Amino acid sequence: MNEAIRATHYRNNHLPNTQWVKSPFSDLDHSKDCVLFAELGDGTVGITDSKDPDAPVLRMKRSEISAWVQGAKAGAFDSFTNL
Fold this sequence. Notes:
83 residues; five-stranded antiparallel sheet; globular
């Protein structure tokens, strides 16, 4: 279970027609602990919070997402978790 899950019931009011995905480790009902990602079609990836349909959308280049993912895999952000 390592593939992103389509967040079919989520709508961000800033990008209402966007298909969002989330981690398979986040809550199933989008009510808490869900960070959503979307391919925005302009070479950027959108990131938002599922708890708020009016939440802003952060746009990042794929290279920036790649750097973050590499850091996460290497444990660089483990201090931000309570695992």
